[in-house]
User: What shape does this take?
Amino acid sequence: MDDFNPAIIAFVCNWCSYAGADKAGGQKLPYPSNVKLIRVMCSGRVDPQFVMKAFREGADGVMVLGCHPGDCHYRNGNMKALRRFKLLERMLSQLGIEKERFKLDWVSAGESARFQELAKKMTDTIKKLGPLHLRGMVESEVA
Amino acid sequence: MNGKKTKIALFLCKCGANIADFIDLKEIESRFSGNDTTSFVETQDLLCSPAGKKNMLETIEKNKPDFVVVAACSPQMHEKTFQEVVADAGINMARMQMANIREQSAWVTTDKKKATLKAIALINAAMERSVLHDDLQPKTMECLTDLIIIGGGMAGIEAALLAANAGRKVTIVEKEISLGGSVIKIEEVAPNMECAPCLLSPRLAAVRDNKNIRVISNASVTDVLGFFGNFKVKIKRMARYVKESCIGCEACFEVCPVTVDNDFNLGLGTKKAISTLFAGSVPAAAAIDKTNCLHFTDGSCNACAAVCPFQSIDFEDTGEDIEVSAGAVIVATGCTTVNPSTVPETGYGKIENVYSMPEFERIASSNGPYGGEIRLKNGEPPRSVAVIHCVGSLSDGGVPYCSGICCMTAIKTGELLRKKNPDVEVYSIHDRLVFNGPEQQAFFEKQKEEGTHFVKTERLRDLRVVQNGTTIEISGPDFQPIAVDMVVLSTGLTPQKGTLALARMLNADLTDAGFFKADHPILRAIGSSIDGVYTAGCCASPCDVTTAITRAQAAAGDAISKLVPGRKIALEVMTTIIDEIKCAGCKLCIAVCPYKAIDFDGQKKVCVVNEAICRGCGTCAATCPGGAARAIHFSDQQIMAEIGGLLHG
Ligand code: FES
Assistant: This one.
């Protein structure tokens, strides 16, 4: 599995987590290049379909990162994300996607080190799990 | 990508060595040059420099691409810069997409090969997404430029005067019968010991004489509708039974046979059933206390009406429902203090001559119950007074925080007492002392010098206050018992009653402590979580008078700088829109919208976004089961394309 190079998509909100990742960049805190970001205005914008689409298109892991509870730029979009996440987590495991492959967490604009840490941890976790294989019915379900 | 022959221009920035040294830009050039949708790839050294921008502009003008992708630094840094360049070149700004290959790849990937591959994925995602971009046009809206201010204390008054002097029409809604709030109840403001009524009187007169200011007193806000630039505020004015023609001459006070507790003096002393708040109040009109007035209780009295030189008495007054439109709302409802009866060990309410700080302020006030003579219940001046700090502060029962200003107020007690009687003994029983800046510290030193005994205890929670013969004894585990004639309890500050209800009407957030939450705690402390709703004074957090006024001036200044007669206000461009053909009217979007920006059109049975309120978070788009809600510039299709592009870079 050493040469397994997982693909990880992280949806990050514009106001906190994207800025946190930018700060990690500014401070040159290295993290695995496996983690690639997609900017959304708020973590509440992340539609479960996006997560499905990412898995279907070959992602081995998906993260959603938003502002800490109470800090969402749009009042409480992150709490909407949390509610959706709980539901999606259960659905994904029914489809045979381990729950470790999907992670919701909070990163503020200042938490560059936390962002780095989460990116590293997620990559390690997915490396241990191995590539995601979607097959047959599940594949068409996810699709 | 769609079948059309679209052409994308890709600009690669070397960013000095920042990108060029860590990413193989040659490799990227060759990867994308072959692409049939790429019209050209151009690598430049410093794209954001004047020369870089000029070159970019000329290249775009010459090649006329449909879309532009800039692979450079973070969009937080230069999105606007490059949007302007493409706009100058005649391409809609929304057709420019950035790939953040510096912060997200060059600077964080140690291996150059991996960094290059990641950059390719990021650029590919940007390209896939960019071709789906729609043109965006700036949106503006007509706005009202008048202001409504809720709360007529010092902060509300100053906000009103600032805006009114700038020519704006201002309505102040005040719950009491006259303006003045909590500052008018103070004798002197520490540390400068400025006479508070003297500070306020000319400001009250200025409000009264300002044609741009309308004061609705004895009133409360019952509902707030609308949004920044166009609020409608519903107000209930309670009956006061005295017309505006009353000038507060007080002729009726003498003839009124009913005496009641004086609530302006916090129940200390008495007043008549017809009264003003204080002499010289604005509005000047008196009000009748209906529950005690004999005209209303048994119909036996008409004395005030008989004696009034202005025929101002109006027993038929029923109050009034008023609606006021305004562009912005400034909340200046102030704060209140912890009720010391929640701390029974202080003896408050049981032992005579144990007062709360606000009560002491009234006793010491020249417009107070005893004309400024500080007296015990038996009429004697006190020979010794103890002030207990932090009552109900930093504790689970009261407020868990330090209010920051009560130490200053507490030690002012000594200053006020010694002015009346230089020989009075004053004790300050405290744990931590909090003073801000040189003036406050100097004031504290002065109090020590002038004789206040500062008694430090680490066990404020374990104090006992008991009546011992004619004196009050205060004891604690770590100091010698102190016997005094009078005790003053310095209490922390808490949100004003009714804050939650008002916040609900405004749809604004509160902090855990129950104060209005700032739009941003550092950058925009005077904004609430709702556009166009401002906070002034201590409704946002406990503060001193100076800060309260500064906040008021900042709030009013910000509001009038945005609401300018003849100018439209800019609206968020990246809102969500709902396709009425696809909308099934399930209203899930209405339930999740944090701003109540979505209404249900009962006729068409569809949900409709009010673009003046929507801030573009996209939560409704993520919730809509039918795909009818589309987040502009962050649509499902655009994000899906980005996902695909990122994974197949
Ligand atoms: S803006 Fe960051 S989670 Fe909502």
